[in-house]
Design a protein that fits this description.
MPAB/Lcp_cat_dom, oxidoreductase activity, 75% helix, single chain, 11 helices, mainly alpha
């Protein structure tokens, strides 16, 4: 999810990593230092490479056709997966590892996680955050849509491994496993989350919508904390410093509650009308 947040910041500021000046601005903003840990510098370089891929994909127009939007997203992830494969090839040079197997594992795992992100995150946010009354059958149909997309893109599971998108409950279990076992939030995750939120807040604060509505880093922390739920927000350190600023979080939760009331009213009114 944090990776998506960074891409959104790139979308808002198309030149975020497009020049040396903006690269320095980003690195200065997120406080990465040449003397810091090497993995932090590697993360910064990877984010800028991903932004370059993102800008290439953004050149595809128009956007009013659904299949072209899917193509743009698919090309974006194909570029990221290609970079991951290339890095794995470099790391396996001089070893007895089977390069082909490593490539297949990287591509398959990343693609499965991508599809789960598009399938599970929207459903769970609509259900738990906005309170949109989605039936179990509707959730199943949406899940099978992304299962079909995965089939078309060539996802193959090892023998005995259940399809991650076979049903909604299975996708939930996969997402929990990916988050707890693969992402495994730690101190580095908290540092990266803080940097990404700062990178998003910086262009928003300086754009006219942000100035008009007074959007700042505190608002983003509260918003993402509300979307992630307190358990996961605490694990990656989002909004933990805002607990004393209860008014900011109350505003965000009030806005979300207003949306939920509208959905509940529409749902109940629709049922009465049908009856």
């Amino acid at each position: 999810m944090l990776y998506t947040f960074f891409l959104l910041s790139c979308f808002k500021n198309n030149d975020l990593c497009g020049s040396n000046i903006n690269n320095l601005t980003l690195l200065g903003l997120v406080k990465w230092d040449e003397s810091g840990p090497q993995h932090d510098l590697a993360i910064a370089r990877d984010l800028c490479v991903d932004d370059s891929i993102f800008q290439d994909v953004e050149c595809l127009h128009p956007r009013n056709n659904g299949w072209k939007s899917i193509l743009r997203v698919r090309l974006l992830h194909a570029g990221v997966r290609h970079r991951l494969t290339h890095k794995k090839q470099q790391s396996s040079v001089g070893t007895n590892a089977d390069d082909a197997n490593h490539q297949a594992i990287i591509n398959q795992c990343h693609l499965i996680a991508t599809l789960l992100g598009f399938q599970f995150n929207p459903l769970i946010n609509l259900l738990t955050v906005f309170g949109l009354p989605i039936t179990f059958e509707e959730a199943q149909c949406y899940t099978h849509l992304w299962r079909y997309v995965g089939h078309v893109l060539g996802i193959k599971y090892p023998s005995g491994v259940r399809d991650a998108l076979s049903d909604f409950d299975t996708s939930r279990a996969w997402m929990v496993k990916i988050y707890d076992k693969l992402i495994a939030p730690n101190d580095s995750s908290k540092l990266l989350a803080s940097h990404v939120l700062q990178a998003i807040a910086y262009p928003l604060e300086n754009a006219w919508p942000g100035k008009l509505m007074g959007i700042n880093l505190n608002h983003l922390n509260s918003l993402f904390r509300a979307f992630l739920a307190e358990k996961y927000a605490d694990e990656i350190g989002i909004g933990t410093q805002l607990r004393s600023n209860w008014w900011m979080e109350l505003q965000v939760r009030t806005i979300i509650a207003t949306f939920r009331l509208g959905h509940v009213y529409s749902y109940l009114f629709g049922l009465k009308k049908q009856a």
